[in-house]
Amino acid sequence: MKRIGLLALLRLMWHAHRPSAIADMPAVKNASWLRHGYQAMTFFGVIVTASQADAERMNAGMTALKRHELIHLRQAQTTGNSWLRFYFLYLCYYLRALPMNRHLRQAAYLLNPFEMEAYRHMYEADYLNQPATEWRQWAAMSPRQRLKAYQATGQAGSNNKKTDNQ
Known about the structure:
Structural class: mainly alpha
Distance between the termini: 20 Å
Helix content: 40-55%
Number of helices: 8
Shape: globular
Radius of gyration: 15 Å
Order of helices and strands: HEEEHHHHHHH
Strand order of the largest sheet: 1-3-2
Strand content: 5-15%
Number of strands: 3
Oligomer: single chain
Protein backbone atom coordinates (compact mmCIF):
# COMPACT_ATOMS: atom_id res chain seq x y z
CA MET A 1 0.00 0.00 0.00
CA LYS A 2 1.49 3.34 -1.00
CA ARG A 3 0.94 6.86 0.24
CA ILE A 4 -2.08 8.57 -1.23
CA GLY A 5 -1.63 12.11 -2.59
CA LEU A 6 -3.83 15.19 -2.51
CA LEU A 7 -5.17 14.66 -6.01
CA ALA A 8 -6.14 11.09 -5.18
CA LEU A 9 -7.92 12.27 -2.02
CA LEU A 10 -9.89 14.84 -4.00
CA ARG A 11 -10.83 12.11 -6.47
CA LEU A 12 -11.99 9.94 -3.53
CA MET A 13 -14.17 12.78 -2.30
CA TRP A 14 -15.69 13.42 -5.72
CA HIS A 15 -16.45 9.74 -6.36
CA ALA A 16 -17.39 8.78 -2.81
CA HIS A 17 -20.23 6.36 -2.32
CA ARG A 18 -23.08 7.20 0.00
CA PRO A 19 -22.32 5.99 3.54
CA SER A 20 -25.02 3.29 3.35
CA ALA A 21 -23.26 1.72 0.34
CA ILE A 22 -20.06 1.17 2.35
CA ALA A 23 -19.65 -1.91 4.53
CA ASP A 24 -15.93 -1.62 5.30
CA MET A 25 -13.45 1.18 4.76
CA PRO A 26 -9.94 0.62 3.41
CA ALA A 27 -7.05 2.33 5.16
CA VAL A 28 -4.42 4.34 3.27
CA LYS A 29 -1.39 6.28 4.47
CA ASN A 30 -1.23 10.08 4.24
CA ALA A 31 0.35 11.52 7.37
CA SER A 32 0.29 15.08 6.02
CA TRP A 33 -3.51 15.18 6.38
CA LEU A 34 -3.44 14.43 10.11
CA ARG A 35 -2.69 16.77 12.97
CA HIS A 36 0.40 15.85 14.95
CA GLY A 37 -0.32 12.97 17.32
CA TYR A 38 -3.40 11.59 15.57
CA GLN A 39 -3.28 8.26 13.82
CA ALA A 40 -6.40 8.16 11.66
CA MET A 41 -9.40 9.98 10.26
CA THR A 42 -12.39 9.03 8.17
CA PHE A 43 -12.44 10.75 4.79
CA PHE A 44 -15.41 10.04 2.53
CA GLY A 45 -15.38 6.29 3.09
CA VAL A 46 -11.63 5.82 3.42
CA ILE A 47 -9.55 5.71 6.60
CA VAL A 48 -6.50 7.95 6.26
CA THR A 49 -3.68 6.89 8.59
CA ALA A 50 -0.44 8.46 9.73
CA SER A 51 1.69 5.37 9.15
CA GLN A 52 1.92 2.47 6.78
CA ALA A 53 1.91 0.08 9.74
CA ASP A 54 -1.45 1.46 10.96
CA ALA A 55 -2.95 1.14 7.47
CA GLU A 56 -1.75 -2.46 7.17
CA ARG A 57 -3.08 -3.37 10.65
CA MET A 58 -6.50 -1.93 9.84
CA ASN A 59 -6.66 -3.59 6.44
CA ALA A 60 -5.67 -6.93 8.01
CA GLY A 61 -8.46 -6.95 10.63
CA MET A 62 -10.50 -5.11 13.18
CA THR A 63 -8.69 -2.90 15.68
CA ALA A 64 -10.18 -0.50 18.21
CA LEU A 65 -8.94 2.38 16.07
CA LYS A 66 -10.63 0.96 12.97
CA ARG A 67 -13.82 0.42 14.98
CA HIS A 68 -13.64 4.07 16.05
CA GLU A 69 -13.49 5.13 12.39
CA LEU A 70 -16.26 2.70 11.40
CA ILE A 71 -18.46 4.28 14.08
CA HIS A 72 -18.01 7.54 12.15
CA LEU A 73 -19.26 5.67 9.05
CA ARG A 74 -22.35 4.56 11.00
CA GLN A 75 -22.82 8.16 12.19
CA ALA A 76 -22.69 9.42 8.60
CA GLN A 77 -25.39 6.90 7.78
CA THR A 78 -27.59 8.43 10.49
CA THR A 79 -27.04 12.02 9.32
CA GLY A 80 -29.15 11.73 6.22
CA ASN A 81 -26.81 9.16 4.66
CA SER A 82 -24.61 12.01 3.47
CA TRP A 83 -20.90 12.61 3.95
CA LEU A 84 -21.36 16.33 3.37
CA ARG A 85 -24.04 16.61 6.06
CA PHE A 86 -21.88 14.58 8.47
CA TYR A 87 -18.84 16.83 7.92
CA PHE A 88 -20.96 19.98 8.10
CA LEU A 89 -22.43 18.90 11.46
CA TYR A 90 -18.99 17.80 12.66
CA LEU A 91 -17.59 21.25 11.88
CA CYS A 92 -20.54 23.01 13.55
CA TYR A 93 -20.14 20.98 16.75
CA TYR A 94 -16.39 21.55 16.68
CA LEU A 95 -16.76 25.32 16.34
CA ARG A 96 -19.46 25.46 19.00
CA ALA A 97 -17.18 23.70 21.51
CA LEU A 98 -14.11 25.78 20.62
CA PRO A 99 -14.50 28.14 23.62
CA MET A 100 -14.19 25.10 25.91
CA ASN A 101 -10.53 24.78 24.85
CA ARG A 102 -9.62 27.11 27.72
CA HIS A 103 -11.06 24.52 30.15
CA LEU A 104 -9.78 21.36 28.48
CA ARG A 105 -6.98 20.87 25.98
CA GLN A 106 -8.45 19.87 22.59
CA ALA A 107 -11.99 20.31 23.93
CA ALA A 108 -13.42 21.28 20.53
CA TYR A 109 -12.38 17.84 19.27
CA LEU A 110 -13.01 15.79 22.40
CA LEU A 111 -16.43 17.32 23.11
CA ASN A 112 -17.65 16.82 19.57
CA PRO A 113 -20.71 14.54 19.88
CA PHE A 114 -19.43 12.30 17.08
CA GLU A 115 -16.08 11.80 18.83
CA MET A 116 -17.70 11.28 22.22
CA GLU A 117 -19.73 8.37 20.88
CA ALA A 118 -16.83 6.89 18.91
CA TYR A 119 -14.39 7.01 21.84
CA ARG A 120 -16.99 5.64 24.22
CA HIS A 121 -17.70 2.54 22.10
CA MET A 122 -14.50 1.84 20.17
CA TYR A 123 -13.67 -1.17 22.38
CA GLU A 124 -17.11 -2.80 22.04
CA ALA A 125 -16.92 -5.48 19.37
CA ASP A 126 -20.68 -5.60 18.77
CA TYR A 127 -21.34 -1.84 18.68
CA LEU A 128 -21.11 -1.74 14.89
CA ASN A 129 -24.13 -4.06 14.63
CA GLN A 130 -26.48 -1.16 15.33
CA PRO A 131 -27.00 2.38 14.05
CA ALA A 132 -24.69 4.89 15.74
CA THR A 133 -27.16 7.44 17.11
CA GLU A 134 -25.82 8.18 20.60
CA TRP A 135 -24.20 11.32 19.18
CA ARG A 136 -27.68 12.88 19.10
CA GLN A 137 -27.91 12.70 22.91
CA TRP A 138 -24.53 14.41 23.22
CA ALA A 139 -25.52 17.02 20.61
CA ALA A 140 -28.62 17.94 22.63
CA MET A 141 -26.32 19.08 25.45
CA SER A 142 -24.47 22.37 25.56
CA PRO A 143 -20.67 22.20 25.24
CA ARG A 144 -20.43 23.04 28.96
CA GLN A 145 -22.72 20.10 29.83
CA ARG A 146 -20.66 17.81 27.59
CA LEU A 147 -17.51 19.00 29.35
CA LYS A 148 -19.00 18.10 32.74
CA ALA A 149 -20.09 14.68 31.47
CA TYR A 150 -16.68 14.11 29.91
CA GLN A 151 -14.90 14.99 33.15
CA ALA A 152 -17.33 12.89 35.22
CA THR A 153 -16.59 9.74 33.21
CA GLY A 154 -12.88 10.02 33.94
CA GLN A 155 -11.96 10.36 30.27
CA ALA A 156 -10.18 13.64 30.98
CA GLY A 157 -7.22 11.81 32.50
CA SER A 158 -6.88 9.23 29.73
CA ASN A 159 -4.94 9.39 26.51
CA ASN A 160 -7.29 11.40 24.31
CA LYS A 161 -5.64 10.89 20.95
CA LYS A 162 -6.39 8.01 18.63
CA THR A 163 -3.35 5.90 19.45
CA ASP A 164 -4.75 2.45 20.15
CA ASN A 165 -3.10 -0.36 18.24
CA GLN A 166 -5.20 -3.29 19.40
